[in-house]
Write a structure and sequence with these properties.
685 residues; alpha+beta; two-stranded antiparallel ribbon; 59% helix; Relaxase
Length: 685
Amino acid sequence: MAELSPAVTVMIQFSVPNPQHVAYTNRKEAVRNDLDQIQGDIDQASLAQIQAEVPELAKGFSRYVNYTNRVIATQNDSQNLTAMFTAEENNAPQEKLIEVKEKLKVAQENHSLMWQCVTSFDTNFLKEQGLIDPVTQKVNQVAIKEVIREAIPELLEREGLSPDRFWWGNVHLNTKHVHVHVGISELNSQRAVYSKDSNGQIEFKGKFKQKSIKAYKSKVYHSLLRQRDRRLLINQTAYIDFLKKEVVKKISSPVNKVQDQQVFLLGQVYRNLPTNKRLWRYKSNAQDFQVSKFFLDKYLDNYLAASQDYQLFVEESKDYLANYQQVYTKSATPLAEAFDKRRLELRSRLGNKLLKELKAYDKQQASKGQKQRLRLPNVNDLVQLDSKDLGQVIDLLKQRGNVNNQLLGRYRYALRQRNLLDKQTSLEAQNLRLTQIKALATDKPFVSLKQAENRKLRALVAYQLKPTYQLSEAEKRAKKNLLKKYADPSKVSLKTVNQSFFDAQARRITEEFKVAQAVQDESIFTIFGVPNKETYLLKLKQQLAILNIKRQVNQNNKALISTTSEVEKSKLKRDNAKMLRDLQERLQVYRATDLKSAQQVNKLKLENEQKKATTREEFKPIQVANPPRANYTPVRPHLGLRFTQGLNKIIKRAEQEELHALRMKLQDDAQIEYEEQQERWRYSR
């Protein structure tokens, strides 16, 4: 992004006198030029440029006055007047110059500070405002001096300088940019004491507040604008303020609150509010408030997206800031930051307005003895949220101090239903594409197989969406068989994958692999979320390998229970540890096939393969009647105690994770059953 030259740049630094020198005119004041003593919203490069162009910044008290009054710098030809301007004169007489020097001497003796302010102007900006003649290139110094004369007193007033403060200025034209020097000091400083040395020598606070500098800069900028531009800017500012007020006013409009989605969201804001009403603030970071904050943001998103006033506010604000940003910076980046600040401030106002209304409503409900806030949300309303939002709310509910398990279960049930609805939509879209495809002769067996599979999966989702109590016995059996046949190998538990389960899955996968190998038109595979045949076949290979590992671990676990031999138990545990590590790697590759290209998947697969000491066999069709066992014979080096302990830890951790997953599944199933019972109870009323 190209750099923008700021219209106005301001830099202020202060000087501290050195009392060790006797001769006033020859003394060297301690001028602090490090960044800590230099102020203004300028970067290091700009600072270096100003210091190079304006060497007088390194001068001290009286020498600074002489230097800034250079004839060559100010281009003033009068012998009787100086180039220095003050609050009263545009070209002060020589007597005034002497008077300023005398005042500086008193200020120095009283240990007052001297501030050196440099205000630099972009040449193009001055030309646009008619302050540089396009033909003669003559600068309108009178106008610039008048602007500084109006702005400096406000700056000094903001900083609380003493009544005996004084200042003087000079316009310099001998550098790339026109700049104005302003010197500021006090006869008797009233500034706060910054430090005191061992000799009792005091040093007053030198830094000006950034807010004061920014206000000075804004004053200079607006004063230099042409009257027409200034009027447009004022009108635009007033219009933006009007739009902001309209947005805030209409958030309480009944029209906004009768929309079903908005009613639901506002209801969730209210129902999830913490008992401590001091936390009912939009910017509150309290964990108990975050669920309400989530729904409040959703409510505001919907409202602002539909608000024409807000869209106009955004457009006008961005246009205003784009025109105004040159006053502040060289980079366009702060434009986005400035707008974001305005946007967040408006959202905060809107959020607090709604919370204030809810607080009044809550007080009214409490006076009636009603506890509407304790009611659980309706599942049909919750499933209107997407799965990402539901998952986020579940995480926020878990982080609360007192977890409401009933409410958490309701959201988990809604998330399950939402995922099923999304899957149903995906299967319907998939079926539509399968029916529209014109398959080659070689591809028809695969297309027919996937069409039949799609019909069964849609039937399964329909069964899953219905509460169990509404299913007939035949539907329950069909649901169970379909779940067994089309279970996701990556998600099914180790306990489930016995020999009969593996046989059914292996038969289905082997059949699908054969017909998929024959496909010529690889664009068919994009229907199923993979880029090509190679990736699709890789996924099938991984499915079978994952199931085979889980089956063998299952068999080993049964053998561990039945055997009494410690040697055999040790061997089975080592075999399981090795297979579980292999399973983790294969799951990583399997999940990547849905998200990455075949090239990336193969790269990940290669990296995993390189970590292994032994090679694995490629996919081969499996004879289901007598499925081959993978060769997991462990290497037999001398096993030290540390090695054995490490393996035991791995095995125990894997078993614990599997047990935890099983417990969570049982809890979810129990909660789902509970929700279905609740639905049945409501249905029977």
